[in-house]
Amino acid sequence: MPDDWSVTLPPVLIVGFWRSGTTLLHEMLAADRSFAAPSLIDVLCPADAPYLRKAKLSLTGAIATLMPATRVVDSVAVTPRSPQEEEAALCHLGAPSSFAAAYFPKRREAILEEALFFDGAPDARERWRAAHDHFMRLLTVKYPGRRILLKNPSNSTRIPDLLALYPRALFVRIDRDPAEVVPSFQRMTDVANEAFSLQGRAPPLDREAAIRFHARVMAKLDADWPKITPERRVEVRYETFAPSPLRGVDAIYESLGLERSVEARRRQKRFWLRRGRTWSPPAIAAAQARPSLPLSP
Predict the structure, then answer these.
(1) Band (82; pLDDT cuts 50, 70, 90)
(2) Residues with Cβ < 8 Å from 223, sequence gap 6 or more?
(3) What CATH number should be reported for the domain holding residue 18?
(4) In a domain, 141, yes or no
(5) Which residues form the domain of 170?
(6) Rounded to two decimals, what is the model's pTM?
């Protein structure tokens, strides 16, 4: 594969703090088949050696029968082929990754320091860049002729590194009221720790710590955002996007100069008509009221 593959068909990268609407935006755009978003199988099994293909097909069926119909933290439907963030793939490839904080919550601060700010390990940035480039090349081979579409809140602090890897990448940023985001992020963190921790129970995420972390991530994003040329970036607000996502998606295509077929917009509309009810405020509130998952001490 030529080294300038990302110049020929620049990827679209969605950033924004956790619980800001990145998943809704990702799935709406991914309904356009000219995009290629990594699936759950892609991120769980990021190695794409030929001898693993049959095993991955079998794994897809097994996961489909075992996995819950919705995500642990909310009512958003998920399948083995649902678009997923690449952070899990980076974790499985051995790169610094925020996903590791769910597995080892007692080391959460050190893990996030290394994965999001490349502090604490001298080779953290190099290992992350190598793993990300490797995974993107796998996606490009697997989905030839399609533009790679990623969403990853962790990438909100990595814009300079993403630009170094993919200088012509297009960026979509989504922001949401911190008063809504911070408590939702707290709950997401605590539920993920209960579900995935390999260290037993960890203390809940303190609200003040969540506020400080939100402020630090957003400060880094604000500082780095102007480094992207204006024609390659667009910002949306969750509060205006969520009530009318089709209109919001139209504006994103126009702002970034992306072409879209009539069929692609029809697919996006069908997606929203089918899945939009799970994004309604009552549905999300009901999901957040569920009791926490049990975890053996």
Answers:
(1) confident
(2) none
(3) 3.40.50.300
(4) yes
(5) 5-288
(6) 0.86
